[in-house]
TrEMBL record:
PPM-type phosphatase domain ranges (all copies): 754-1002
Location of this chain's protein in the cell: Cytoplasm; Membrane; Nucleus
GO molecular function, one term: protein serine/threonine phosphatase activity
Comp. bias intervals (Basic and acidic residues): 1261-1284
InterPro entries, A to Z: Leu-rich_rpt, Leu-rich_rpt_typical-subtyp, LRR_dom_sf, LRR_domain-containing, PPM-type-like_dom_sf, PPM-type_phosphatase-like_dom, RA_PHLPP-like
Entry keyword Manganese: yes
Primary site of residence: cytoplasm
Native organism: Cavia porcellus (Guinea pig)
PANTHER family hit by this protein: PH DOMAIN AND LEUCINE RICH REPEAT PROTEIN PHOSPHATASE 1 (PTHR48051:SF43), PTHR48051
Lineage per the UniProt record: Eukaryota, Metazoa, Chordata, Craniata, Vertebrata
Composition-biased stretches (Polar residues): 1096-1115
Region (Disordered): 1027-1123, 1244-1292
Pfam families the UniProt entry points to: LRR_1, LRR_8, PP2C, RA_3
UniProt name for this protein: protein-serine/threonine phosphatase
Length: 1292
């Protein structure tokens, strides 16, 4: 067919393949596209995520694509396909019949645009992806799932016998099970004649033993009837038995037909005249149909009807004729007004109208004198309707999510029957009084998430509970006669006036507000309390939270007077000692949970702890403990959880074996050298001894079966035998450092960044937080770090952990705009979740570090994108810089307003439809359009002031402020210990959920450069400038100090493997002698911090050459008793590496470091030649040949060489500098042939030794000098500088 002709008249083509012609047709106009049409035989239950290509999908008989434009209506597609109508399914859920005028392709484009795609070309491309079927799908016929059909209606022709006796014969009859009744026709295959109705509610269903696959259906009552039905197959027998058993088990005639995509009520349902409750929620019910809403009045006993989420638009007036109704739910139907006939429902007791567009209520509603519950939340009301005064049976005003700006207490005073007022999430700004009379009726008031600045509720003398969180309150005035509970967190309060004293007050939540009342539960954390007043005798205090204050001491009589105290959290203060628990010999303390993390406690506080014999949880992390006396720990036999991390302990007392109930021991970041005797405890589950000085582990013959998690990372000297590892094999989670091979280059990580991460499950039995960490990303030119929090599911975080980096790698190849490729990464990852993302969701945070290509003199750009509640904070100059946005209803008013405008129901716990508090996340597609996957994106250029980056999930930032988190880890040198510390602090501050933290240490600046001519630069400790030469380089850190998880390390090729590869790629035509063939200068190696300006010349990563010699086992030459000085050995080979830089035009003679180490100055008469200075290194006992020249040559730097420690490429690898190898640094440039292949230096045979003893160094230098002088000087032409040589060999 002619594509252009079809496209011009908005016609369509049915294709079974998506070939080049179709793609060319699409490229001509972005308004063109295709719609994948599925057949009806593909049910929603068995349809998998279409992850195959279009060619493989087209082979399926139930799927084909239809080429069309955005103007093509459904009627035209149906005409071309020979179908009556098309159906739309979103997120594998409900299926809606499309109207003839609707345009399918425009629906897809609008859907993608709402998700976050902006580029029309990209929208067109995404619309052609078959994977989109898991989110939006079109059917030629209405699909039906078998189990859905069974729950709606079961029918068939079977042998039926009436009665319990065998007087009646078996006869074939039509049998239908629908609603609450069994329907049997009087004539075979007759559906219009007389039908026998058997009510099943309260009846019974039994198996007929004398006849195979037969059931006996009996009704309830004294005159019960029985029908025997014989089925042909076991499958049919089980289907009928399963569905009928649900009906007979009911005590009230209830029919649930929710979420079945129904447009009308099944015809046979009207035979069930005993139905009292009918649930039609989440359907597409129509008005004027044979079984539409206008026919529901036929149910004469109907009392409850649920029609929420049907998108009716207009109120079904005929519903007002069902006078028996007592409960009616019409939420989320798009009503703008109510008819006056609603006043006819005189028996109505519950009316739910939430999530509509109502702004007034008819006066006739006042006739419903039995109405006891009226819900009008999330509508468009700007005042409290006056009809409330007539509805005297109501005791609640539920108007959350409307548009009230003024709270008129006078209106509420006239409603003496109202006791509860819910005005959450309105626009309240002011309070209005009509008179000074008090309101003696209102007991509960909820004004959360408004804009109130002052709140005076002193006239509500019967007020018992007040919620006023997340306003802008400066002053709060209340009556204390009946006050029991007050929640006023997240405000700006400077004064709280309560008069008289609230003697009934049992709970007070004033987070971040100064208050020190004596209650049964006192929460005064996050204030500036300096001291607590003296306590009264026998105060009934049970819970006391004092964290994040400036307390230096606790009251001396705290434990002796507060005898009921069970919970005390005094973390993040400045406590130096603790009060005594008892005054006499016997302690009466009932304290069970004690949190004292992040104080100044010393060993002197330990004896006081023995006065609390009932302690179950004890946190003493991040104090100044040096010892824990064994005799004291022996008395804490009830301990279940002990946290001693971040101290200076050298041992854990052996008496810990007496704590038989201990299940958790956290003692990371200490100086422990001896493994504690905890593997004999019968209930031990979690042990964290990371970042210590352990050397060995003495384990018993059998480990406890309860042990689930053992963390030993960060113990650099720990050596585990194979026997020990075998015994640890049954542990669910074992974290140890993977010791890299001494010949691999994986021990040298990125110069500019290193990371550590920690994840703790808390009191939950599974970890729903996953992390992504790649220090070398995109061929080593950048890094990617991510965190994914699934809240209650672990599937999606793991999926994102495995796929998101690959998606990002694809997107950065298509666009260089950070907003574009980050947005596309999130949206494509959202699509790739497939069916798993339909019902499950996850917060996601992704941080991408890359070189600044726009500014060659710049360093790196950090791009952060996130959805949900995971956050990233950058430490710049010691100050926190938030880089992400929290997408939650509580912290983002704009997002909350967007969700409100789209008429989502926000429950009292601030969750969208009671599911999640997030407004943007990956997955949860069934909550579209309330929940979107479009991320917040921010980019910043990294500078020398940027010290570290912290990634954390929701629970971490709920318990730690940005400033506290940054200050806690700034001076911790190990990133793993830093991440552990953050998680420990969060748990000590009250976190009981999953918590995850990742700390990325940044070393951005000139000291991190790896392209210096005076030697390589290796990363130094955090907080100290990195060294500039190998001589001063620190010992390479172990992998545990950078990551903490063994699975994150990538093994690179060893030196011998590199040598083998280099030799195999060498060509025989390049075997000329190194010194005789001439030294050809090569471009200098640059790091990502100093990229070479682009000149169009390709440069590869330097190669290394390894020369072997015959050595004895001890590393000595076979002819010598002592090792040859100046020869580098590793036991079996002599490895020589030469780094030959092309340094034209670079003035290095003025470099002070170079002058210090140079022994042979470069002759001035040869400015273009190369000179080598041999620099001695005491640390590695080696010599390094350093090139010296003056002219500068600017060549383009390949992305593969932007990082010194990048991944090995096909033309060679950079071998890491390690003490165990004692390598001389080399990097020779392999030439590029005209054919496109690399020519690497040839590998010499073992007998061709290249030994440079110390006494021959001068001779070698002289020969090299002579070689340089004998070289003919080429003419200095401009083209010589830009055109690289075609072939050249290495120098050695």
């Amino acid at each position: 067919r002619n594509m252009k002709r079809n496209g011009s008249r908005n016609c369509l083509n049915r294709r079974n393949r998506f070939g080049s012609r179709e793609r060319d047709w699409l490229r001509e106009d972005v308004k063109r596209g295709c719609v994948y049409l599925y057949g009806a035989d593909t049910t929603t239950a068995t349809t998998s995520t279409t992850s195959t290509s279009s060619s493989s999908s087209s082979t399926s008989s139930d799927l084909h694509l239809v080429l069309c434009t955005v103007e093509t209506p459904v009627s035209e597609i149906c005409a071309g396909e020979g179908r009556e109508s098309l159906y739309l399914q979103l997120h594998g859920d409900l299926v809606r019949r499309l109207e003839p005028t609707e345009r399918p392709l425009q629906i897809v484009y609008d859907y993608l645009s709402r998700l976050g795609f902006e580029d029309p070309v990209r929208i067109q491309e995404e619309a052609t992806n078959p994977d989109l079927g898991c989110m939006i799908r079109f059917y030629g016929e209405k699909p039906c799932q078998m189990d859905h059909l069974d729950r709606i209606l079961l029918s068939g022709v079977y042998n039926v016998r009436k009665g319990k006796t065998q007087l009646h014969k078996w006869a074939e009859r039509l049998v239908v099970l629908c609603g609450t009744c069994l329907i049997v026709s009087s004539v075979k295959d007759c559906q219009t004649g007389k039908m026998h109705i058997l009510p099943l509610v309260g009846g019974k269903i039994e198996e007929v033993k004398r006849r195979q696959h037969s059931l006996a259906f009996s009704s309830a009552g004294a005159q019960a009837q029985t029908y025997h039905v014989s089925f042909e197959t076991l499958a049919e027998y089980q289907r009928w038995q399963r569905q009928a058993s649900k009906v007979v088990s009911q005590r009230i005639s209830t029919v649930d037909l929710s979420c079945y995509s129904l447009e009308e009520v099944p015809e046979h349902l009207f035979y069930s005249q005993d139905i009292t409750y009918l649930n039609l929620r989440h359907n597409f019910m129509q008005l004027e149909r044979p079984g539409g809403l206008d026919t529901l009045y036929k149910f004469s006993q109907l009392k409850g009807l649920n029609l929420s989420h049907n998108k009716l638009g207009l109120f079904p007036v005929l519903l007002c004729e069902i006078s028996t109704l007592t409960e009616l739910n019409l939420s989320c139907n798009g009503f703008h007004d109510l008819p006056s006939q609603i006043g006819n429902l005189l028996n109505l007791q519950t009316l739910c109208l939430d999530g509509n567009f109502l702004n007034t209520l008819p006066e006739e509603l006042g006739n419903l004198q039995q109405l006891s519950s009226l819900g009008i939340s999330f509508n468009n009301f700007s005042y409290i309707p006056g009809v409330y005064e007539k509805l005297t049976m109501l005791d609640k005003v539920v108007m959350a999510g409307n548009y009230l700006e003024v709270l008129d207490l006078g209106v509420l005073s006239r409603m003496s029957h109202i006791k509860h007022v819910d005005l959450r999430m309105n626009h309240l700004k002011t309070l209005v009084f009509e008179n000074l009379e008090g309101n003696k009726y209102i007991t509960h008031m909820d004004v959360r998430d408004n804009q109130l600045t002052d709140l005076d509720l002193s006239s509500l003398c019967s007020l018992e509970q007040l919620h006023c969180e997340r306003n802008q309150l400066r002053e709060l005035t209340l009556s204390g006669f009946s006050l029991r509970t007050l929640y006023a967190g997240s405000n700006r309060l400077t004064a709280v006036n309560v008069y008289p004293v609230p003697h009934l007050l049992t709970s007070l939540e004033l987070s971040r507000i100064l208050s020190s009342l004596s209650l049964r539960k006192l929460m005064v954390g996050h204030n500036h309390v300096h001291n607590l007043p003296a306590l009264a005798e026998h105060i009934p205090l049970e819970v006391l939270d004092l964290q994040h204050n400036v307390l230096t001491r606790l009251p001396d009589t705290l434990f002796s007077k507060a005898l009921n105290l069970r919970y005390l959290n005094a973390s993040a203060n400045s406590l130096e000692f603790l009060p005594s628990a008892c005054t006499g010999e016997e302690s009466l303390s009932m304290l069970q949970l004690l949190y004292l993390t992040n104080n100044l406690l010393t060993d002197q506080c330990i004896p006081v702890l023995t006065g609390h014999p009932h302690l179950r949880i004890l946190h003493l992390a991040n104090n100044q403990l040096q010892t824990f006396p064994a005799s004291k720990l022996n008395k804490l036999e009830q301990l279940e959880e002990l946290n001693l991390s971040g101290n200076k302990l050298k041992t854990i007392p052996t008496t810990i074996a007496n704590c038989k109930r201990l299940h958790t021991l956290v003692a990371h970041s200490n100086n422990i050298s001896i493994f504690p005797e905890i593997l004999q405890l019968p209930q031990i589950q979690f042990v964290d001894l990371s970042c210590n000085d352990l050397t060995e582990i003495l384990i018993p013959e059998a480990l406890p079966a309860t042990l689930q998690d053992l963390d030993l990372t960060g113990n650099t000297n720990l050596v585990l035998e194979h026997k020990t590892l075998d015994m640890f094999s049954h542990i669910t989670t074992l974290k140890i450092d993977q010791k890299p091979l001494p010949t691999t280059d994986s021990t040298v990580t990125s110069t500019f960044w290193s990371h550590g991460l920690a994840e703790m499950a808390g009191q939950r039995n599974k970890l729903c937080v996953s992390t992504l960490a790649m220090d070398n990303f995109a061929e080593g030119v950048g890094a990617v770090y991510g965190m994914f929090d699934g809240d209650r599911n672990e599937e999606l975080p793991r999926l994102l952990q495995c796929t998101m980096a690959d998606v990002l790698l694809e997107e950065i190849q298509q666009s260089t705009n950070d907003t574009v490729f980050m947005t596309s990464t999130f949206l494509v990852s959202h699509r790739k979740l497939g069916m798993a993302g339909q019902k499950l969701g996850s917060s996601a945070l992704l941080c991408y570090i890359r070189p600044d290509t726009a500014d060659p003199t710049g360093s790196f750009i950090l791009t952060v994108a996130n959805v949900g509640t995971c956050q990233a904070v950058l430490c710049r100059g010691g100050k926190p810089v938030p880089l992400s946005k929290v997408f939650s209803l509580e912290q983002d008013p704009e997002e909350a307003q967007r969700v409100k405008d789209q008429k989502a129901i926000i429950t009292e716990d601030n969750k969208v439809n009671g599911v999640t508090c997030c407004t943007r996340m990956l997955g949860c597609t069934y909550l579209y359009p309330w929940i979107l996957p479009k991320p917040h994106i921010s980019s910043t250029s990294l500078t020398i002031q940027d010290e570290l980056l912290i990634l954390g999930n929701k629970t971490l930032w709920e318990h730690l402020s940005y400033t506290e988190a940054v200050n806690a880890v700034r001076h911790v040198q190990d990133p793993l210990a830093a991440a552990k510390k953050l998680c420990t602090l969060a748990q000590s501050y009250g976190c009981q959920d999953n918590v995850g933290a990742m700390v990325v240490y940044l070393n951005i600046g000139e000291e991190g450069c790896t392209c210096e001519m005076n030697g390589l630069t290796l990363p130094g400790p955090v907080g100290f400038p990195s060294t500039t030469t190998i001589k001063d380089a620190p010992k390479p850190t172990t992998p545990s100090s950078s990551s903490g998880i063994a699975s994150e390390f990538s093994s690179e090729m060893s030196t011998s493997e590199v040598s083998s590869e280099v030799g195999s790629t060498a060509s025989d035509e390049h075997n000329a002698g190194g010194l005789e063939s001439g030294l050809v200068p090569r471009p200098e190696r640059r790091c990502s911090l100093h990229p070479v300006p682009t000149s169009g010349v390709f440069q590869r990563q330097p190669s290394c050459a390894t020369f072997s010699s015959n050595q004895s086992d001890n590393g000595l030459d076979s002819d010598d008793d002592q090792p040859v000085e100046g020869v580098i050995t590793n036991g079996s080979k002599v490895e020589v590496e030469v780094d030959i830089h092309c340094c034209r035009g670079r003035d290095l003679e003025n470099s002070p470091i170079l002058k210090e180490h140079s022994s042979t100055p470069c002759p001035e008469e040869h400015p273009r030649g190369l000179c080598f200075g041999i620099r001695r290194q005491n640390s590695v006992n080696s010599g390094i040949l350093m090139p010296l020249n003056k002219d500068k040559m600017e060549l383009q730097k390949s992305p593969s060489t932007s990082c010194l420690y990048g991944k090995k490429l096909s033309n060679g690898s950079i071998v890491p500098l390690e003490d165990s190898l004692n390598l001389i640094e080399v990097a020779t440039e392999a030439p590029k042939r005209k054919t496109g292949y690399f020519a690497a230096p040839t590998q010499l045979e073992p007998e061709d030794q290249f030994v440079v003893p110390r006494d021959l160094e001068e001779e070698v230098k002289e020969q090299m000098k002579q070689h340089q002088e004998s070289r003919p000087q080429p003419e200095s032409h401009e083209e010589d500088r830009t055109e690289p040589p075609e072939e050249f060999d290495t120098a050695l």
